[in-house]
């Protein structure tokens, strides 16, 4: 019997798992699935469709990203999102991305600089547009942010650092969306901080670049960098 989940056939299991994971990830990010809530497989199947096996695989994937917690005795639950969690993930992001940026500045050439300038343009545009329709454009806005920060560390020559940076970015998504929903982001302020960051990168000024990156990561959450 052929089963379809979100329009996919059951012979495309990996795609189904990825698609389920994206839907659950989105609902966690938007608070539809609140912090610390239990993720019961049967309840999720009723909400999204799909097999129990696919959901176990998807939740395991999200657990590896840090936004879901897995326990052999209690199953799965949404990771907590306290003020302490916010401070931990943002400060760690600043440290890891700062290190990755320093390494990228040593190895990145003209092509990397062009990618960074293009990513800055895209995220500046996303900042301006998202304020007109937050619900519809939040994910597009966050993807533009993800791409900009990914480019910053993309030439660091450390796959492990890049993987960890990506995980921390996803872990902090819920906090970014909370700031966005409160309309607490300031597009012109963010644009100015990114300009300072990119200018320092192009000048190959490690200290100014990492300081600007730290401010860019921490300041939107009310924790200015040193």
From TrEMBL:
Residues 14-81 form the HTH gntR-type domain. The keyword Zinc does not apply. PROSITE patterns: HTH_GNTR. Keywords: DNA-binding, Transcription, Transcription regulation. InterPro entries: GntR_C (IPR011711), TF_FadR/GntR_C (IPR008920), Tscrpt_reg_HTH_GntR (IPR000524), WH-like_DNA-bd_sf (IPR036388), WH_DNA-bd_sf (IPR036390). PANTHER family: HTH-TYPE TRANSCRIPTIONAL REPRESSOR GLAR (PTHR43537:SF20), TRANSCRIPTIONAL REGULATOR, GNTR FAMILY (PTHR43537). This is GntR family transcriptional regulator. It comes from Hoeflea alexandrii.
């Amino acid at each position: 019997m052929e089963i379809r989940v979100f329009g996919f056939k059951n012979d495309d299991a990996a795609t189904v798992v990825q698609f389920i994971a994206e839907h659950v990830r989105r609902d966690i990010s938007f608070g539809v699935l609140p912090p610390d809530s239990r993720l019961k497989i049967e309840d999720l199947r009723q909400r999204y469709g799909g097999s129990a096996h696919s959901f176990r695989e998807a939740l395991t994937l999200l657990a590896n990203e840090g936004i879901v917690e897995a326990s052999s005795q209690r199953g799965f639950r949404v990771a907590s999102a306290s003020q302490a969690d916010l401070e931990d993930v943002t400060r760690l992001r600043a440290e890891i991305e700062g290190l990755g940026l320093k390494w990228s500045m040593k190895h990145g050439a003209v092509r990397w600089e062009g990618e960074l300038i293009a990513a800055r343009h895209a995220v500046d545009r996303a900042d301006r547009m998202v304020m007109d329709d937050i619900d519809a454009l939040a994910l597009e806005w966050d993807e533009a942010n993800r791409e900009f920060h990914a480019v910053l560390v993309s030439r660091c020559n450390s796959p492990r650092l890049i993987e960890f940076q990506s995980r921390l970015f996803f872990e902090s998504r819920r906090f970014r969306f909370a700031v966005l929903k409160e309309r607490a982001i300031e597009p012109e302020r963010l644009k100015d901080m990114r300009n300072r960051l990119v200018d320092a990168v192009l000048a190959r000024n490690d200290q100014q670049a990492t300081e600007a990156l730290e401010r860019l990561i921490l300041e939107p959450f009310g924790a200015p960098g040193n």
